[in-house]
Structures are given as structure tokens and as C-alpha cells.
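Interim report to the steering committee. The following record documents the input for PHD-type domain-containing protein (728 residues).
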Amino acid sequence: AEVDEFELCGPLDGAAPGWRVARREKGKVTLPLWNFCPARLACVFCRKNDDCPIKYGEKKTNEKWNLTVHYYCLLMSSGIWQRGKEEEGVYGFLIEDIRKEVTRASKLKCCICKKTGASIGCVTPRCKRSYHFPCGLQRECIFQFTGNFASFCWNHRPVQIITSNNYRDSLPCTICLEFIEPIPTYSILRSPCCKNAWFHRDCLQVQAINAGVFFFRCTICNNSDIFQKEMLRMGIHIPEKDASWELEENAYQELLQHYEHCDVRRCRCKEGRDYNVPDSKWEIKRCQCCGSRGTHLACSSLQSWEENWECLECRGDFQKAKKHTLPNTNVGITDCLLEESSPKLPRQSPGAQREDLLRQGSKFRRDISTLIIELGFQIKKKAKRLFINKANIWNSALDGFRNQNFNPSYTIEIAYVNENDHFGKEQPGSKQEFLSLLMQQLENSPLFEGSLSKNLSLNSQALKENLYYEAGKMLAISLVHGGPSPGFFSKTLFNCLVYGPESTQPILDDVSDFDVAQIIIRINTAATVADLNSLINEYYNYLELIGCLRLITSLSDKYMLAKDILVYHVIKRVQAPFESFKQGLRTLGVLEKIQTYPEAFCNIFCHKPENLSTKILSDLFTVHTLSDVQALGFWNSYLQAIEDGKSTVTMEDILIFATGCSSIPPAGFKPTPSIECLHMDFPVGNKCNNCLALPITSTYKEFQENMDFAIKNTLRLEKEENSHFIGH
């Protein structure tokens, strides 16, 4: 018979040492003790040998009584209580109580596997279902590891109720990042504090086991109280222990290491690069920004330790220095600062490193095009076609991005359709033109307020329709897929995204509401305490409504009052839209990249691209080898005439005509814009291929007139077509 079919009964009187009795339904039989070694013993409740702490809890054996239990099987059994201290019995459950519970359970049959020993019952009144813990997991029962440790069968288990489901497409699990259907089920859970945060149950359970009660929190907003309460209700076990990474021996030992190596190209120390003598010219000074590169004081001509020194990477001129030719003699200061390309010493754990990136983002000055190209590595070859109505770009994009089959990591293909075309004709479209038009719609949408530098607005209807999330998602997709720079964010909004609202101080220019701005100005310019109190009385209802009433004891209190109003209006008032927008911006890892390299992204989020010039456009377009030489000469003259203001066409008009974009995207154009010369009267722009066909004419005057006429009229017609929907 298999060992699992026997039940241990303890030592047998008179038996040889090392023997035990095992009982079957009929009679008794003695078996050697090695048949019951702890590694092979089954749990007395579920009778399984499995040792899986995440699913069943720790498997523990009391060798004195030859008793093995899974922690969760013991914890969830309906007829047992912890009557002893933690060190008594098994986890504080007395041996005699465990035996009684095993006896009780032996009379109950599992409603799932039909075997006896079902020690767990559904707590719902009138429900008589009993089951083993592993069987309950298999049948998707819920076990609450809190309070009275209640258990619910599959018919009575608690569920998450969502009043309205506006999610039409898949969302990533915020732990493993795999896409899931945002529908609450047993296996899929939603965060109670962030409505766009979804998780696999298994991911949450592993996270909870590793993080423990002190570090288990919402991965989006870091809320712990509301989050843990909901997860306990839904059957996630949160152990009362410290996080696993805190218990690891020497987990942060690398933080105690000091970098001691001279990295300059020509180290002058005869004792070697690792030679370090404090309080001398051979003392190693570390980079003040990253601390991961070093130099001897003498090797970089530093007079004292107090002088600051930055490595080339942190100065942002690494590429320039790399091209510098080193002379063979006469070593100078510039030569000394050229470092050898050695790998940096890893000094920090990922968590600490991320915090440093937020505080010292200026040290990572990487090229924005490189960063976006890196994000673009996620894009797969599998294509998803979006059907876009140019007269209704916004709703077309919403429908496409919300489609359940849309995956932001798929290659995007654009097909333009016309809702008035009853034949359903499709025209191939330019992806970059579509993204450029979409960003224009986003900038002018009611989701943002302000003139040039915009902040998020408070639009209740947009919040209800989850449009702030969609806006963040659109922006992330646009950047990764080669779209244009946003260029309309205020510094305050950008800093909130990077450093958090609590670390951001808004300015008066962030207030787009004229009345609120006047209140702040009047408070700031109050000349006396009496004037200040008079203003508070005048705006009493408003200040009470926004929670900014304060006791005035001196005139200097006006600054704190004005600051409170400013913070409320710009930040606290739009907290819900901000969190939703921020969650959308996490798509394809864009927000994380922004937070890691804030200086690089600040330029494209908060500043419009530089104006185009003749040189920029000339360098941008490549010329086909068989192009007409005279036409190319006319083209260069035409660009110069535009720059000199001798044409009604602008440089941006030409770029829009050829590519559909008014500026060069941060990641550049794909394919590269090109020029060809054809025997035709007027120029033709192929936006799908970013190709501009120039007409071959006999005179420059004819060339200019034909170019002006075609470009101006084409753009005018497109503008009228696009504004048709906006006007309505």
C-alpha cells in the first residue's frame, strides 16, 4: 500500500526501536520509521505531500508526534483555535487540538474530491459545503486570512463590483506587465484606490509574501491601508513579517563600498590607478554627481579636496570627448579628464538607485532620440490597423485604442476612411501624420487648461469617461511610435509627473482662472493685517470651500495663504485627473523613462521644437541620385527665399506637405524624408513614404509659383476638412 493511505498512531508498545504503527480500516500493521521521514509525510488535513509555501503555506512537521501540517490548512480549519503561545505545538495550535480537528474532519467528505478529511467549511449560513484547502483553491474558493479566518465557497465568495466598465481593451497587470482583460474575476483583481490598476491574483500573492505587511501596498499610489483591507477581503494572505529583501543577509552591503579608482585616460600615479593616500595629491576624488568614477587630485590638477569634479558622462560631453585626439606628448588638463571606458561599479540596490535618479536626474544627460528609440524596441512586427476618420481624429483614435484587440506594442498601420463614403473606400495613411494630428487635438482638448504652458483641467465628464487615462495612453503611444514632441506641458505639470505633486510648487502663471488669479494677487499685495482680514472675509465662502481658511496673526501669513490657494487650485483640485493621466502615461514604460531621465524629456514636453531653417530642411531630405540638377538648384533657392520672407509658404508648410508633421519628431522620421524630381507641373507630397516630388520647370519663377500654389491650397483644403468636425 502507498504510504499516504496510512494514518500515524504513535509509538507501538513493545515494538523495536525505530518502528511505528500505521492503521488501516482493518487491523494494524507495523512499518519501519524511515517510511515516515518528514520529507515524505503528508499534511494531516489535506493529505498532500506538496511543499509549496506560496499556495499552501509553510509545511511544518512536529517530529515528536510525527505530525505534518500545511500552515494554511491549519489556519483555515473551521473547528480549531490558537490556544497556545507561538512556540507551543505547531504555530501556537496545541497538538491535542489538532488531533481533535483531524478527528472531526475525518467524518466530513470534501464536496470537490469526495474524500474525507474536509476540515474547512463555507461560513455562509445554510451552506453545508466542506472541502480541503487545496481543493478549495482549485475550485476558486476564497480564504480570508484576517479576523475569524472565514472561508467562502465558489457560490458565496466576495466579488469586486464595478459600477461601469469603460475598458474596451486590455490593460497590463501592474506587477508582471502582461496584458489582461480588465474584468474582475477570481484570477483578476482591481486596486481599490487606483481604478486603472489591475493585477493577477497569483502576482499579488507572490508580492504579498515577499513584501509582508509593512511593504505590501498599491503599486501605483503606494496606499497601504485601503489596499491591504481590500486584498485581505479578496483572499490575499499578507504575512506579518518584514520584507524578504530586508531579511536577506548583507542585502545592501554594496552601498558601503567606496569607489577608489582613477579613471582619467592618463593616470600620473606611478603606484597605479588604485593607489589612494588620504590628505595627499594621490587621494582619489569621486565624481560629485554619480560617485561612480574617480580621479587622483594630481591627475586632474585639483588643488584641494574641496574642489568639485565631475566625470565626463555627468558633464554630458562624453561623445565630444571621445572624438578628441590625444597628443603623444605634453599631457594637459584636457587630456587628464578623458577617462578610460571602464564599467561603473554597481553601488546601489534598484530601489535606492531609483530614488537617486529622481533627486539627481541632471546627471543623466542622454540624447532624447536615443531614449525614445530604446522605448521603440518594444514594438513588435505584428501590425494593427487603425481606421481613422480625418474629420473626427479624436473619436477615431479613442475607438481604435480602446478596441480589445489593440495592443500598444504592435506596429500601427493607418487607413483613412470617410464616413460619408458609402462605398467604404480606404486610403493608406501616414502614421506620423495621424499622431501629429492627434497631439494637436490633445493639446486643444478640454482636458488641459492654459494658453501656452498647460496644466490638467478638472472636467467631470472626462473623468467619468476615463479620458484622462486615455490621454496619457495616447501621449505614451505617440512618443514610442515616432510621434511629435508634445511641447505644451507646464513645468509644474512635468515636475508633478517626475517628482510627485507633494514635491512641486506651482507658480501664479499656472492659474488659468482669472478670478482665482486675482484673489491670489490681492492677497499677496495686502499692505496691512486689516486689509488681509478684509480679503479673507470677502472670500470667506471660497476659502472655506477649498479648505484654505487660516488664522491670521501677522502680515507674513499672506504668503502661506496665497501658497495654499495656489497648491489647491493647480494640484489638489485635479488630483483625480492627474492620477488617471499618470497611469495612462505608464503605457509602454514611458513614465518610468521620463522619471529616470527628466532633463532629456523636459525639453520635448515643456518646449516647442526649434524653428525650421534652410539648413535643417536641406539636411533632413535626402536626394535621389537621378534627380534633375536644375530642379535641385531651384529647390535650394526656394528654401532660401522662404527663410528671407519672400514667400507666403513657411518651412513648416513644406514639412507638413511632405510628411504630415509640422516639426521633426524626437526619434526622427521613418522612413527618412527624400526628394525626387519628376516631369510634372506641380509638386506632390507622399506622406506615407515621406517623399517630396519636385516639378521640373524651365525657370525658377515658374518653380516658385507652382510650389506656392500647390502647397498653400493643399494645406488649406486639409485644414478645412479637419476643422469641419471641430466646428460642430
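The longest strand covers residues 380-389. The committee is asked to note this result when reviewing the revised timeline.
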